[in-house]
Prior knowledge:
The protein is of the alpha/beta class.
Amino acid sequence: MASPYASPYALSFLLLLLSVPAVFFLAPRLLLPKTLPAIPDADETEDLALFRRAVLLSAAPAPPAPATSGSLFGRRAHQAQPPKVAFLFLTNSDLVFAPLWEKFFAGHHGLLNLYVHADPSAVLSIPPTPSFRGRIIRGNKATARASATLISAARRLLATALLDDPANHFFALLSQSCVPLHPFPTLYRALVTDNNAGTGRHRHRSFIEILDSEDTLPARYVARGDDAMLPEVPFDRFRVGSQFFVLAKRHAVMVVRDRRLWNKFKAPCLVKSRDSCYPEEHYFPTLLDMQDPDGCTKYTLTRVNWTDAVGGHPHTYQPEEVSGDLIRDLRKSNGTYSHMFARKFAPQALGPLMEIADSVILRG
């Protein structure tokens, strides 16, 4: 008599019974997550403590004590100093263009401060230039595309600059691939002399791109889910813009103080929306347009060429493209002021840029 276990149907039934527990055990390990990674709670808690200190100290009168010594980013005394520009570099690789920036900063250190946020996973080699040496801020945390970590890094830079020197009145966020297009005095005059004269308040404006009619806006709005941004951010208030900007001090404080919109934008995007997830291009223009639209120019001072973008990255200028004509063309702007910075340049472009630094870039 044949064994019942010899039946192919019986064997299939046994295999099915054995596979059910295996499916329940392995499924969570095999199935892809529905959302991209979120910001770790520990990072969020540490950042919030930093932001609270920055907001409180920005609202308090500066003490009349001598400048703080010892701590690199300690609170400095404000002794009727002229307004300064805080240059905030966000990088995940070597600061190859530091020698060019050093020439840009030369002779103007009393009017600027420098802060670098470097991804801790990057093997970073800072060129031995005086301005960049020792300027990496404490508490840097990992950053990644398609996540709100780039927003956190920018807010961390803003908070650090607010805490460090009360004379910081303008905050220029730049990447490691940005280069200057004008000498420092040209930038400084544009920032200091610009104000909301039309409103009667005479407050300096922020230079940040704010767009409300891009074709990709609907897909970007639902990147976290169809109704994920409601009720705080209805679709008609959602904006897009460049992640690089120059903020006036009151807007820097506004960004660091914000919790309401941050709770929406820090939520991780859906995996299926990865190609539409650029939180750093949405959070800043949306927040500032909702809270102080008249205080923003709605255009950026950083020129970017998107004509042949690849994988979300703009055109990268190669050494053979660098020339005086290129610099003069990149300066052209539809705004009141010409572009002051440009990206994205390949590291190998440093040599040609240095060759025309004195004759073109730093001659205005």
